[in-house]
Specification:
42% of the residues lie in helices and 17% in strands. By secondary structure, the chain is α/β, with parallel strands linked by helices.
């Protein structure tokens, strides 16, 4: 049982693939299938470019795809959409609503992740409120969010020693800079561009997955 007194839900570890903005649902599903086949252990649906109708269509299709691969499906920002498609949970940023309200809507057995950027006080508050995982970043320059606040690797070490929840690292992560984050305490790596924009999505996902296999073996 975790420090917040709740039974752990789904395992949060490994490659945490996050979808890019795309209005081409067929291509999005094709690339996501390759990422999941390559070993992605979680999927988050994030699409800032789509309207609500398209978001519902894409989220429902991705929900079915993640069931096929038996991996957790998380919706970014929108607890209501997560509820509609029976997602495994929601990921909330600083302006995406209260954790308490999301928990009331989704129920006690769903995953709620919270972005805490570069702030340990936010992380402590989120864990106290019942967050199932904490995300820190951006650790490296991000093409998706070039104006994102930056975080130092040391915050992962501090949070690993202090907080009893899985830690997710995000922001400009590549196969080359990922190992330092895993060594510092990241249980999962949230990746968009380095997977979805790769020439070979399947191979890229495998490379990230193998980083965690090697880390476990050492």
């Amino acid at each position: 049982m975790s420090r917040n007194g709740k039974t752990p839900r789904l395992v949060i570890s490994g490659l945490y693939a996050i979808t890019p903005d795309s209005t081409d649902t067929a291509d999005l599903l094709r690339r996501t299938r390759l990422a999941l086949a390559g070993g992605a252990r979680m999927l988050q649906y994030r699409n800032k470019a789509a309207d609500q109708t398209l978001r519902l269509k894409q989220a429902a299709a991705l929900r079915e795809l993640t069931r096929e691969f038996a991996v957790p499906f998380i919706v970014n920002d929108d607890a209501q959409l997560a509820f509609q498609v029976e997602a495994d949970g929601v990921h909330l940023g600083a302006t995406d609503g209260e954790l308490k309200l999301a928990r009331q809507l989704l129920g006690s057995n769903k995953i709620i992740g919270i972005s805490c950027y570069n702030c340990m006080s936010l992380a402590r508050e989120a864990v106290e409120a019942g967050a199932d995982y904490i995300a820190f970043g951006a650790f490296f320059p991000s093409t998706v969010k070039p104006a994102a606040v930056t975080a130092e690797v040391e915050i992962l070490r501090q949070a690993r020693d202090e907080l009893n929840v899985p830690l997710v690292a995000i922001g400009g992560i590549t196969a080359q800079n990922a190992p330092i984050l895993i060594a510092a305490g990241a249980r999962a790596l949230a990746v968009i561009s380095a997977v979805y924009n790769a020439d070979d999505v399947h191979a890229s996902a495998q490379i990230f997955t193998n980083l965690f296999i090697r880390d476990t073996a050492t």
